[in-house]
Design goal:
This protein has helices at residues 3-6, 22-26, 37-56, 72-83, 97-108, 126-135, 157-166, 186-189, 215-218, 232-241, 252-268, 270-291, 320-329, 355-367, and strands spanning 11-12, 63-69, 90-94, 113-117, 141-145, 147-148, 153-154, 170-174, 193-197, 208-214, 307-311, 332-333, 335-336, 344-348. By secondary structure, it is of the alpha/beta class. The structure holds pyridoxal-5'-phosphate. The site of pyridoxal-5'-phosphate (PLP) has 13 residues, from helix 4.
Length: 373
């Protein structure tokens, strides 16, 4: 491989994996022994401690972080399969593809569940949630997606958490595409489990996910797991007693790169600073795209700064593929839309991506609007 092959030909404006910094990629270059203290004590343990700090601040002692091999969905599946006991019942709030995936996981694992699906273009019905929790006392756990990456919908986590915790239920959050990029007061909201992965807003490379758990909740889950590989409790015990040891082969290079990514998050100014950068990326995107005549799918007040869905241009010459290919030659990769029944595309504003990059993207979009002629 020569140096030019190591250069990124384009930046990823996608929901993950994301563009990473050159220093994060450089951290991949050395090998680590999965058994050695250099790795377990020097890399894994500080990551676990910092994740808990990020999530819980001065209430960190009440929480613990478990890392799990695989893409983000593996950690979501580990969380659901370990947290919900055999006689438990799960209420799933869904408004997009990732909410649907929660339901699919529950169904595969044969976890008793009910689904409140309000559709991709609406927010969960809080009154209905409250009523269901009052009526169905068998429901022990509630799970929702914080930022539904299908649309960029930022679900009202505070309000939902208030209802779920007032009703005394365990709350699990798929914050895959928001954790690290949007401030979340995990202890303040009473969240019991929150899950994300290495390659989203912390800006690492793909290969593992993590679940930050309330210790007192996880401690009770020893006999729940439906899968050996995805037994979050067993993984946790091994990490605790083995001081950072993973049960099975750990993605060592990815984990070391993640440690670098966490350091860079810190150097940037932590989650508030990253949130501010993503918000600025998003502001420039929306302003530029609307000036060029594009329309957002979601109303502004529901839209997160993470990823934005746009209606495809209503022009006979437009195809997503041609638009995509042109932007790619300009150095940007965008994403197809996912909303049922709407022709659309998505642009992410997260990762090692800066306001200047988004301003250049807008110029590229302007130049690529050949279908208008
Ligand atoms: C990315 C993402 C996931 C996990 O997807 P993987 O492809 O398994 O990494 C889960 N939920 C949400 C909301 C996501 O954005």
């Amino acid at each position: 491989m020569n140096d030019s092959e190591l250069e990124n030909p384009y930046i990823l404006l996608t929901p993950g994996p994301l563009s990473t910094s050159p220093t994060v990629r450089k951290a991949l270059l050395r090998d680590w022994c999965t058994w050695d203290d250099d790795y377990n004590l020097g890399v894994v343990t500080p990551i676990r401690e910092k994740l808990v700090q990020l999530a819980a601040g001065d209430q960190a002692a009440d929480y613990t972080a478990v890392l799990m091999q695989g893409s983000g969905s593996f950690s979501v599946e580990a969380m659901i399969g370990t947290a919900v006991p055999r006689d438990g019942k799960l209420l799933i709030l869904a408004n997009g593809a990732y909410g649907d995936r929660l339901a699919k996981i529950a169904s595969y694992l044969e976890v008793d569940h009910v689904i409140h699906d309000c559709g991709e273009l609406a927010q969960p019905d809080q009154q209905k949630l409250k009523q269901t929790l009052d009526d169905d006392l068998a429901i022990s756990h509630v799970v929702l997606v914080h930022n539904e990456t299908t649309t960029g919908m930022l679900n009202p986590l505070e309000e939902i958490a208030g209802i779920v915790k007032a009703a005394g239920r365990i709350l699990m959050v798929d914050a895959m595409s928001s954790f690290g990029g949007i401030p979340i007061d995990v202890p303040g909201l009473g969240i019991d489990y929150i899950v994300s992965s290495a390659n989203k807003c912390i800006q690492g490379v793909p290969g593992f996910g993590f679940v930050i758990c309330r210790r007192s909740a996880l401690e009770r889950c020893g006999n729940n797991a439906r899968s050996l590989s995805l037994d979050l409790c067993d993984q946790w015990r091994t990490m605790e007693t083995g001081k950072g040891k993973w049960r099975f082969t750990s993605p060592t290079h990815t984990v070391r790169a993640f440690a670098q990514a966490m350091q860079e998050l810190d150097e940037e100014g932590g989650i508030p600073a990253r949130f501010a950068r993503y918000t600025e990326n998003h502001r420039i995107l929306i302003e530029g795209m609307e000036r060029l005549g594009f329309k957002c799918i979601l109303p502004r007040e529901w839209q997160s700064p993470i990823i934005t869905g746009f209606h495809s241009p209503d022009a006979p010459g437009y195809t997503f593929q041609a638009f995509y290919d042109t932007l790619k030659t300009h150095g940007f990769v965008i994403y197809p839309g996912k909303v049922t029944g709407i022709e659309s595309f998505r642009i992410g504003t997260i990762g090692h991506v800066f306001p200047d990059d988004i301003a250049r993207l807008i110029e590229a979009v302007e130049h690529s609007q050949t279908w208008i002629n």
